[in-house]
Amino acid sequence: LIVAGNFKTFKTRKGTREYLEELEKLVSDSKSEVVVFPPATAIQDRIEKVEIGTQNLYPTKNGAFTGEIGLEQIEEFGIKTVLLGHSERRDILNESEDLIAQKFRFYSKEKLRIVFCVGENLEIRESGEDEVFKFLQNQLININLDYENFVIAYEPIWAIGTGFTPTLEQIETIAKKLKELTGKDVLYGGSVKPENVADILSQKSVSGVLVGGASLKADQFAKIVKIADEVSK
Ligand code: PGA
């Protein structure tokens, strides 16, 4: 199972270093794959068990792209995993389908592992499961599903940071369909916390979780990792 933590725009370089030192101690013998995505200023070399990924990248090795980082900046830290298509980038930073697809193309050529986020808003969820799946399918239309080194993160927008989650049946239904469509592992994200993670990870088609708020404290995130170990399929 994969347990990934997305810090978003939280934590400094120093805070991330302290967090990682604490987390390393708590999860060193875990059988789960543990990944954290700190902000760009806090990306750093892996200490041991916990992999460091990056929340975003511009599709370039380097160049004149003010405010962005590219391949050269992450290679220095041996980073091999990138989060793409997060709904906050799509909706707040106005990232287009086309730019997301360019990023996917560029970083799949570079053989990075891609955690590709998809997810519907509440209006689509309320129009029913068929509409939800149609929407998610469209978010994958420009993505090369033959690329091997990527996983899907199913993150309903209305579940992110809200404390709401779909029912377990709804999570399983969508995860199963996404898995069938793509042949990839599917993570679930959106208000995952120690209290609900066992049930979510027990769903047959769910291969991991992407955690925002509940990843910010090392002891709480370690709790999630421990529960993942117990569920381990
Ligand atoms: P949350 O965020 O766990 O705080 O809901 C999840 C995410 O945005 O990846």
Tally of individual helices: 9
Strand order, sheet with most strands: 3-2-1-8-7-6-5-4
N- and C-termini, Cα separation: 8 Å
Number of strands: 8
Can you walk me through this structure?
The protein is globular and about 45 Å long. The longest helix has 15 residues, at 13-27. An 8-stranded parallel β-sheet has the order 3-2-1-8-7-6-5-4. Strand 1 (2-6), helix 1 and strand 2 (33-37) form a beta-alpha-beta unit. It is of the alpha/beta class and 233 residues long. Helices cover 38% and strands 15% of the residues. The model has no long low-confidence stretch (mean pLDDT 98). The protein has helices at 13-27, 71-75, 87-91, 97-109, 122-126, 129-139, 168-182, 197-201, 218-231; strands at residues 2-6, 33-37, 51-52, 81-84, 113-118, 150-154, 186-189, 208-211. Helix 1 runs parallel beside helix 9 (218-231) and helix 6 (129-139) packs parallel to helix 7 (168-182). The chain binds 2-phosphoglycolic acid. 2-phosphoglycolic acid is lined by residues 6, 155, 160-161, 189-192, 210-214.
Key descriptive features of the protein:
single chain; about 230 residues; alpha/beta; eight-stranded parallel β-sheet; about 40% helix; binds 2-phosphoglycolic acid
